[in-house]
Amino acid sequence: MGAAIMASPAAATISGTKNTLSINTAALPEAEIPAPAKFTDPDWTAKGEQRAKVWLTRLETLWINTGTLCNIECKNCYILSSPKNDALVYISALEAARFLDEAEAALTREIGFTGGEPFLNPEFPDMLEDALSRGFEVLVLTNAMQPMQRPRPRERLLDLKDRFANKLTMRVSLDHHTRQLHDEERGEGSFGKALEGISWLSENGFRLAIAGRTSLYECEDAGREAYRALISDNGWDVDADDVKQLVLFPEMTSAEETPEITTACWDILDIRPSEMMCATSRMVVKRRGADAPVVVPCTLLPFDEAFEMGPTLAAAALADGGMFERGAVKLCHRHCSKFCVLGGGSCS
Q1: CA distances from residue 17 to 20, 23, 322 in whole angstroms, order as listed
Q2: Phi, psi (rounded to 5 degrees) for 7
Q3: What is the rounded distance in angstroms from the CA atom of residue 3 to the CA atom of residue 48?
Q4: Domains observed in the chain
């Protein structure tokens, strides 16, 4: 994966394996020595400082990605969901159940379902019922548009709400409080359809949360005030001051520069590794063409195979080498820096 620059009296050569690359630069003029790239070497930053890592303190939340297919294509979707992207295929209820078994044994508190749009997966309602019937708290991330609003999903949701009302939370993505900016991100007509879905959930007594984007506001306080007015106008049962009920996520774009996180950053920033999402969560994904799902550290790293931790939660707890050290996650991705450490974001 990463490049480690090493000096030697021999001519310049490149050697190593896929995960350990060495560049022998002694024979190169100084101006031709390539600068190490950021977020490449698992253990060292481009400046040669020791990279930070995060240990799992307890598996509080297990995320299950239901597949990347979605009914819409957002302008800046970090997971690139769309009506055509099935890079992560539909996971089956039986496959999900095996991970629920492990989570149950580990006394995991919460199961999160994300996509894509979960309600496109035909087996999602069965997974949802399975998780709720085991006593987990369940968080569903949805755009609340047409897939959720079809008659059959509504019937199943109403039944599950009646049976497990205090365990189920529906978090709806609403990027902005205005039709114009929300539709610029998610497509024309998406704002109205999302509001229709949120209103249906609220009117039927579901525990409800809303997720927006901080990049679309001058500051978080202004964003909360704007959402507060929208919530009040529509009569939704959502507390705009509760960071769990109104979640404003930091943006994640590849174009923006972000620093690497070193072991010294914890003291400099006055934060603890245990506050990071990968200290308390893992996610299950199933890649197109794969025989079985695998575990990855969190919701932000679904595609990079370097961050695969194994086929079970037990294997993930022992993942070693490359991006891991005996189950700990090395923060060798820009999302680790931008979203989690500096942005203070967490999907659960």
Answers
A1: 5, 12, 11
A2: -95, 145
A3: 11
A4: 2-32 (no CATH), 54-249 (3.20.20.70)
State how beta strands 294-296 and 61-65 pair.
unpaired
- Alpha-carbon span 148 to 120, nearest angstrom: 8
CA distance linking residue 86 with residue 91, whole number of Å: 11
Separation of alpha carbons 175 and 184, rounded Å = 10
Tell me which of 19-33, 115-129, 293-307, 313-327 is least confident.
19-33
The 10s digit of each residue's pLDDT in 123-176 is: 999 999 999 999 999 999 999 999 999 999 999 999 999 999 899 999 999 999
Question: Residue 105: CB partners within 8 Å, gap ≥ 6?
Answer: none
- For the chain, give the number of residues: 348
Q: Are the C-beta atoms of residues 26 and 16 closer than 8 Å to each other?
A: no
Answer whether 8's CB lies under 8 Å from 313's CB.
no
The answer to whether 254 and 37 have CB atoms below 8 angstroms apart is: no
What is the per-residue pLDDT for 170?
Answer: 98
